[in-house]
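May I ask for a protein sequence together with how it folds?
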Amino acid sequence: MATLPGSFILTTPYGQPSQSPYQQPSYPPPMPPMPGGQLPGAEKRMPAALLAIFLGGFGAHKFLLGYQQEGLIMAAGTVGGFILSIVIGLVTCGIGFVLLIIPFAVSVIGLIEGVMYLTKSDEEFVRTYVQGRRPWF
C-alpha cells in the first residue's frame, strides 16, 4: 500500500487500518479462562455486588474493584452529606435535614451498581469493570 509523502494511515491501537479518525478504540479480547474454568477477575463479581448493595453508599465495592478515587467520592458524599445535613439542620431548626437526600442518592447509586453487577455474566463483568476499567454504571 503506497502513501503520499506527508500523509499517514490511521490505525487502531492494535495496528489494524482504521477507516475513520472518530472510531472508538477496541478493547483487547478477554483473557482465557483459568484452568478451573473461571476468568481472572470474575471472582470479584459477587463480593462487589454484595458490597454495592449493602455498603454502596460508602463506596466499598469501588475499593474492591480498585477504583480508589471513585470510592472516596462516594464515601465523602455519604459521610459529608450526613454531617452537612445535621449541622445545617441544627442551625435552621430542622429545615437542613432535607440535605439527607445527598447520602440517600449516593446509596441508591450503589444499589443500582450492585444490581448491575449481579445481572452481568462473568465475561461481561470482567470485560467492563476489570479490563475496561469503567468506574461508573
